[in-house]
């Protein structure tokens, strides 16, 4: 089941990468009769160019407007590569004049909780950051994937997601499966923490 955490405005921008999470989010919200604009950020790589082509085709097929952002500055000395890509993408998303929805989901929240715990300060992905909101944080990735499959939607895979030289990928592929063996209720525990924030839950599907 896809759940929405918090109330979603009628006019929104969806951060859109062409991956299964963002495809499901855009489709789901569009089916909810909201006016959806897609926002894709091109990192200036061959992979990003290929992803942009997919996003433009998706935009045309589903009659959804698409805005494309590009790299506007170099990496600062105090930024890791992961921080740099994340920061310039959020600069782009923060430039809109309406709420921006990202497809961060419950499994992302579990990864972040583990990642931050390993650094001594366990924390949740926040529901909002400026105009950016994350209403899918109590929905599993499996639910988003099932939505795409049931609705005949295609998506693309980011080839870097399997590269365990990045800490986030190592946690996703190596640590999370072991953590779920030790505590099968880990997702339920994280989901409960979001419910305790007292944001209303919309169960739409």
SSE order and pairing:
Layout: E1 3-5, E2 11-15, H1 20-31, E3 35-42, H2 46-62, E4 66-70, H3 81-93, E5 100-101, H4 106-118, E6 128-129, E7 132-133, H5 141-150, H6 167-182, H7 186-195, E8 201-203
Parallel strand pairs: 2-3, 2-5, 3-4, 5-7
Antiparallel strand pairs: 1-8, 6-7
Helix pairs in contact: 1-5, 4-6, 4-7
Number of strands: 8
Major sheet characteristics: 6 strands, mixed
Topology pattern, helix = H, strand = E: EEHEHEHEHEEHHHE
The CATH topology corresponds to Rossmann fold
Mean pLDDT: 89
Largest sheet strand order: 4-3-2-5-7-6
- The poorly predicted ranges are none
Helix count, per DSSP?
7
* CATH C-level label: Alpha Beta
Summed up, the domain count is 1
Residues in β-strands, percent: 5-15%
Helix percent band: 40-55%
Structural class: alpha/beta
In short:
With 205 residues, this protein is of the alpha/beta class.
Structure, explained:
The chain is an alpha/beta fold and 205 residues long. It has a single domain, classed as HUPs (Rossmann fold), CATH 3.40.50.620. The chain has helices at 20-31, 46-62, 81-93, 106-118, 141-150, 167-182, 186-195, and strands at 3-5, 11-15, 35-42, 66-70, 100-101, 128-129, 132-133, 201-203. The chain has a six-stranded mixed sheet with strand order 4-3-2-5-7-6, sandwiched between helices. A hairpin with a 2-residue loop joins β6 (128-129) and β7 (132-133). α4 packs across α7 (186-195). The longest helix is centred in the N-terminal third of the chain and has 17 residues, at 46-62.
